[in-house]
Design goal:
138 residues, alpha+beta, Cytidine Deaminase, domain 2, 4 helices
């Protein structure tokens, strides 16, 4: 399956969680390395032409906790976005481990602190992608 070209999908809003997951699946496929993907949506829930991967270490450090909301806030403002789709990628099964929960909680809290409406998070694993439920993140 090939990733869609932006010009072919830019006018298609991603209203439902299923539509977000389908688009992320087309773009990301399956896990290759540990990273966080940020996909920005406009006020009509359409994907903006900016998809940012960012390497993350195995565990978040105190520096990540201190700075993540500021960094996300700047990127979000510069993109002139209305919401943010977050996908956490790492090799392994679709089961969440403690490290996964640490990263997802940090990102959720950073979005809350920066007043960013987050869609997701999505876990990208060896066999594809899955939505992560709020109750799965402490």
């Amino acid at each position: 399956m090939t990733a869609p070209h932006y010009d072919d999908v830019r006018d298609l809003p991603l209203i439902s969680d299923e539509q977000v997951l389908e688009r992320a699946s087309l773009l990301l496929g399956h896990a290759i390395r540990r990273q966080v993907w940020l996909m920005f949506l406009d006020e009509s829930e359409r994907q903006l032409p900016l998809l940012i991967p960012s390497y993350v270490p195995r565990r978040p450090s105190p520096g990540h906790r201190e700075n993540y909301s500021r960094v996300l806030g700047v990127l979000f403002e510069d993109a002139e976005a209305d919401s943010l789709v977050v996908a956490y990628e790492r090799r392994g099964s679709d089961e969440l481990g403690d490290t996964d929960r640490e990263w997802l909680a940090l990102i959720r809290d950073a979005c809350d602190e920066a007043a960013i409406r987050m869609r997701g998070p999505i876990l990208v694993h060896d066999d594809g992608l899955r939505w992560v439920a709020p109750e799965d993140i402490p």
